[in-house]
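Training component of the fellowship. As part of building independent skills, the fellow (R.M.) carried out the full modelling exercise for a liganded target. The chosen ligand was nicotinamide-adenine-dinucleotide. The inputs are recorded below so that the supervisory panel can assess the work.
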Amino acid sequence: MTFSFPTPTLFGAGAREELPARLAGLGVARALVVTDAGLPRTTAFALLESALAGVEKTVCADVRPNPGEADVENAFRAYREAGCDGIVAFGGGSALDVGKAARLRVKRPETTLAGFEPGLDWNGLPPLVAIPTTAGTGSEAGRSAVIILGGRKRVLFHPALLANLVILDPEFTRGLPGKLTAATGADALTHCIESFTSPVFHPLCDAVALEGAHLIAGALPRVVANGGDMEARGLMQVAALMGGIAFQKDLGAAHSLAHPLSSLCGLHHGLANALCLPFVMDFNAARKPGVYRRPGIAMGLTNPSDAETISAVRALFQEIGLPPGLRAHGVDESMLDALADQAFADERHATNPVPVTRDDLRSLYLQAL
Ligand SMILES: NC(=O)c1ccc[n+]([C@@H]2O[C@H](COP(=O)([O-])OP(=O)(O)OC[C@H]3O[C@@H](n4cnc5c(N)ncnc54)[C@H](O)[C@@H]3O)[C@@H](O)[C@H]2O)c1
Ligand SMILES: [Zn+2]
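Fellow's submitted model of the complex:
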């Protein structure tokens, strides 16, 4: 068993100013900045540009939400055409994952992402600095890139995908709109709860997951109520990173339900988790009583029953403007079989605290409608 928490991370308002020196230290003479089409219009991007003044760079700003193979190919092509030698991935999980995965193509241009083989030698990928502008996915701290391949969310996993450096500067999330702040924060909470309750033995991750849940329960309502609460913005960034570290233990059935909602119905990943997690918690608690006691304590409850922890999660999602109901997001009964098939094929539920069948997943979707 290997325990590892290895990514150097710079945290704090103004941490971005260190970027030029850090890129030089990583031997990067020309960086490819990978981001999505929305970000160049944000104040976050203006801050990045001023931090990068004087650094040779090419910007590839066409990553789509829930990215697929074409997004990675675009970034790879831009990297090669501009003669880059390192990547700055700047954005939410979509941009970070594309920045991470493009390095696989740089290392082995003869292979495709769909044919990704973890068994090959992936050492020596181009340097990557990961700079999140949402506080949710934790992709900056993780060894995976989530890319839609063959119509399905695939988790490409390899230790070499880890970023060389993470920069958490709360100023990058100051302007994140409320709905996205809420949905990405719900993703971070889901990571902490699902990783803690995953049966894999990893007490270090368990501790990280519980503290992450603690920080989120306090900070998420604050950032949604007041996007300019920079202390809470910073706490959410750290908590999201902690969620990303914790889910080395892997996740659970909520993520298996969420992935097809993105690939088949286009839902935002964090929103999809928020709409499914409480129902998965009901399901798990009925079969493994006591499973949510410690996450509930971490969230501030005193010796809670599972039902009390689950109510606290529902109340938190309600408070931040994520009421239940897949139907309000365009999902209906006619889609449930296709969704359930994909959810069952998604490996994340293998580490759910209790086993789930394809029909269980279908009935969870039905409840979440
Ligand atoms: N690799 C992992 O470990 C991991 C974990 C969880 C989720 N994911 C993946 O990450 C993706 C979701 O990432 P996400 O939730 O961060 O959303 P996202 O990256 O898809 O971004 C959502 C929207 O937020 C906007 N945005 C981002 N930062 C902003 C800012 N500061 N100001 C204004 N707008 C901003 C973007 O332009 C975009 O329109 C999904 O593809 C999901 O599957 C990956
Ligand atoms: Zn997630």
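The panel noted the following from the submitted structure. The domain at 178-368 is CATH 1.20.1090.10 (Dehydroquinate synthase-like, alpha domain). The mean pLDDT is 96.
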